Amino acid sequence: MGLLLIGLFIVLMLIGVPIAFVIGIVALIGIFSIPYTPEATVPMSFVNGLDSFVLLAVPLFILAANLMNSGKISVKLIDLAMAIVGPIRGGLAHTNVLVSMMFAGVSGASQADTAGVGKILIPNMVKQGYDKETAVGVTAASSTVGVVIPPSIPMIIFAGLTNASIGALFLGGIVPGILIGLGMMIFIYILAVKRNYPRTARTEFSKFLKLLMETIPALLTVVIIIGGIISGFFTATEAAAVASLYTLLISMFYYKTLKLEDLPKILVDTLALSSLSLFALAAASALGELMSYYQLGAMAQEFFTNNVGAEWLFILIIIAFFLFVGTFMDAIPAMILFVPIILPTALEFGIEPVHLGLIVVITLAIGLVTPPYGLCLLLAAKIGNLSIERSFVTVIPYIAIILIVLLFIAFFPDIAFYLPKMINPSLF
Amino acid sequence: MKLQKKWKQWIYCRILEIWQKNKNNILDRTAEDGFIHACHLNGIFQALRKEEVLPVKRFIGILEKIQLTLGVLFLVVFFTVIIIQIITRYLGIAVIWTEEVANYSFIWAIFMGAAVMVNRREHFNFDLFQRKLQNKKKASLTIFNDSVLILFNIFIFLYGMQVVTEFWNYTWASIPEMKMGYVWISIPIMAGSMIIYSLSHLMENIKLLKVREVNE
Amino acid sequence: NDGTEGEDGKIKIVAAHNQTSPDSPYQAGLLKFKEVAEEESNGSIEVEVHAGTIGTEESQLVEKLQLKAADVVVVSPGFMTQTGIKEVDLFSIPYIFTSYEHWESAVDGEVGEKMADIINEKSDNSFKLLGYWTAGVRHYYGKKPLESIDDLKGMSLRTQTSGVIADFWKTAGAIPSSISWGELYQGLQQDVVDSSENAYPFFVQQNHHTTPNGKYITETAHDYTTRFLLINGEKFDSYSKEHQEIILKAAEESVKAEREANNSQEVEYKEKAIEDGAEVNQIDREPFIEIAKPIQDEAAKEMEAVDLLQDIRDLAEEQK
Ligand code: NA
Ligand code: NA
């Protein structure tokens, strides 16, 4: 039966049935096949899967990002980033990476960064003589740090699934996120020297100061969110609401770049984007339900402890597995489906939940730029008017950089967790 | 008189919209490269006029608008409620209903949004294989996929109704006056509207398939 | 697919509780249930035990029981009230039971039988009670020890923020505040909340006793907790007489095993708390009980369970 369901999954997916529905259909047919289990558990788990306060952070962080884009705050961040790294060879590409890292500090997702920043920087880069491939590649790849640098929606979901501390995960994401960004900038520098990419004009110090002062209210969002969560001032979901409210207020009253009549469109866009991924999540929780009736978690634990004795091998298998799953599935449903299954085994191997979380989240971040389903890649390719295939080829070196950082974190977790443990040992 | 003009305008927009959405389905490769048969457009136009698609389309449009508005309203509700929760906590006032109200508005918002996304064909799917197919086969596959969605949603609707009736009288933990039925009912409403949207897609595609056959 | 007795006379029972830890007393209880049921029936009953895998929320387990997506579940009174059966909440009123022996004589005697009938009737035979389990006895723990009831004045305490339990703590002078269980450790660590209340196995496993706001434990024993072991009544009726008897017997054994596991954990985790540096003190509970009495009266009236309350109080008198 299991094989039949997997076959059905693949066939439905290939003929173009929307993936969220494929998941739901497989769950329904699977439950049909179990005697003693009523089919009504499928719609029931749709609701139960969504009935979690943690998940409310998803639309709220998307809202915050949409407000930032519409309120032109992303433009200001770009200006600031350009003033800092523009004068280096390959300036606009470096800007692209740096602004993604700044954006990541406010946003919990990556797509909004690709869309907001890409729309401005891709055409600009092409104008300045970068080839389209590089422009698209850098934009897509660098926005993956959005889910590594806190806040991060996937981290919140992971914490919800495993009871790992959200604060610890968030703090743990900072160092890897910065390492990924730096790695990409080094690679860009080498490329830029070889291909003689342009730099942008140096910004005068007084002008730089002015820019900095202008962007400080926007950058304060990071402090509010991360500080608020770590100090226990508010929960992750509340932080997301505060971030949205704060962004709304500064763009309406401080920057005056947002008008009341812009709001309906922003809200509709937010609803659209979040209902797509969260409906997939609802369907995934039905499939997860099916898997728990099959007791897959216990089976996985037995399999791994009997056949995979070593922790390092288990970690490599997890990475390979989530790399594969990430090619055709969003991070959230992927975690809902598979984290509960691997968690018992991970605990048995003595892997801490926060460590596992970091590994899973970074691995699934790569899924944002791997076809066929890599949202950031699709978005950037569309903005740059480049085929998915060619876009993917240019992203490969960046994926390698993320993978290197990932492997370091996987086997030397202290790289990520040393600092946070110093700052606040009670989080662990 | 004025109304009639508006009405015509509306028809025209709908036709353009349908055209935009389905042009990949109904045009062959040459057409996609910029060569558009006038007869195709004409055919669509006639099909639309003849078969009284208009009231249906209008109904779908209204339904989508209602659902979208509801979804956005619920989004605003849970956003506001969370802000209230933070404020009241720091004022030392215990407000116990915030979490439940927020959660249930969220569920409604997501389900309404998901249904609208079915109408807009925004749910992510792989079109690699679909893109490789030629016109008629492609249209047939689309029809098949729509049927799959309809069938699935019929089950969800029926089992959803079962859940609604079983648990209608369960109460909210924080507000015992509220029934859980108000939450569960969102499932059949979502599934029902998804059926309606998919049916309209199905009919459109069947029509376009016919038009295609006539023009071949 | 809610078929019951298979053609070969075999039945399968999906049994579930919400605790993910393999060491929880619930797991011990359900494993005992499985062992006895399978052994006594020579394998014609198969029991599948789910430890949190088909729902970590009790509300989900109750829903599944009603839908027959689970056959046997463990739930607390609070979640049962949401199904519309008000009377069950009687068992969670503070100080309704004054000792473990009192609790045991109540639930295993006439009171327990009456409650079982109420649950079965009011749920239209969806729920049938198989036995009473416990989740331990709940105590206060906070940033200072309670020497008298006055020490509670102005203290924020993590507990339910509505209903009878909240009323009790408010009357006692504390400020009930809501923090999710998962965030409580940090809340106690960072002074978000002054104190909390729970049974030893639960808060010691979460290391609450190692935080500054959790290290003083006062044995208020305000709640000898009750958990309901339920089976779907319609399904139970569809089984053969023989199977029904085996299930009842297995349930009886599971009750023993669960209470035993719980009681030994209470001792074990109390010792661990003291070893780790927590301080435990006793307190005169009479003033608390005095406060609780009118609240109990009021609540019982609202639940239409005045007689049941009287029965429970009579039992306490007898035991004195
Ligand atoms: Na981020
Ligand atoms: Na970028």
Describe the structure.
The complex is a heterotrimer of chains A (about 425), B (about 220) and C (about 325). Chain A has about 425 residues and is mainly alpha-helical. Chain A has helices spanning about 1-15, 20-35, 40-50, 55-70, 75-85, 90-105, 110-125, 130-140, 155-160, 165-195, 205-230, 235-255, 265-295, 295-305, 310-325, 330-350, 355-365, 375-385, 390-410, 415-425. Chain A has one domain. In chain A, helix 6 runs antiparallel to helix 10 (about 165-195) and helix 18 (about 375-385) packs antiparallel against helix 19 (about 390-410). Chain A is globular, with a radius of gyration of 21 Å. Chain B is an all-alpha fold. Chain B has 9 helices and no strands. Chain B has helices spanning about 1-25, 30, 40-50, 55-90, 100-120, 130, 135-165, 180-185, 185-215. In chain B, helix 4 runs antiparallel to helix 5 (about 100-120), helix 5 (about 100-120) packs parallel to helix 9 (about 185-215) and helix 7 (about 135-165) packs antiparallel against helix 9 (about 185-215). By secondary structure, chain C is an alpha/beta fold. Chain C is built from 12 helices and 11 strands. A 6-stranded mixed beta sheet of chain C has the order 7-6-8-5-9-11. In chain C, helix 6 links the parallel strand 6 and strand 7 (about 175). In chain C, helix 1 (about 25-40) runs antiparallel to helix 10 and helix 6 (about 165-170) packs antiparallel against helix 11. The radius of gyration of chain C is 20 Å and the shape is globular. Chains in contact: A-B, A-C, B-C. The structure holds sodium ion (NA) (2 copies). Chain B: InterPro entries: DctQ (IPR055348), TRAP_DctQ (IPR007387).
Please specify the SSE layout and strand pairing.
The complex is a heterotrimer of chains A (428), B (216) and C (320).
Chain A: H1 2-14, H2 19-33, H3 41-50, H4 57-70, H5 73-85, H6 91-104, H7 111-127, H8 132-142, H9 153-162, H10 166-195, H11 205-230, H12 236-254, H13 263-293, H14 296-307, H15 311-326, H16 331-348, H17 353-366, H18 375-384, H19 388-411, H20 414-423
Chain B: H1 2-26, H2 29-32, H3 38-50, H4 53-91, H5 98-119, H6 128-132, H7 135-167, H8 181-184, H9 186-215
Helix pairs in contact in B: 1-9, 3-9, 4-5, 4-9, 5-9, 7-9
Chain C: E1 11-17, H1 25-40, E2 45-51, H2 58-67, E3 72-75, H3 77-81, H4 100-107, H5 110-122, E4 127-133, E5 137-142, E6 156-158, H6 163-171, E7 175-177, H7 181-189, E8 195-199, H8 200-205, E9 216-224, E10 227-232, H9 233-238, H10 241-275, E11 279-281, H11 286-303, H12 306-319
Parallel strand pairs in C: 1-2, 1-3, 6-7, 6-8, 9-11
Antiparallel strand pairs in C: 3-10, 4-10, 5-8, 5-9
Helix pairs in contact in C: 1-10, 6-11
The complex binds sodium ion (2 copies).
Membrane topology (chain B): Multi-pass membrane protein
Pfam families (chain B): DctQ
GO molecular function (chain B): transmembrane transporter activity
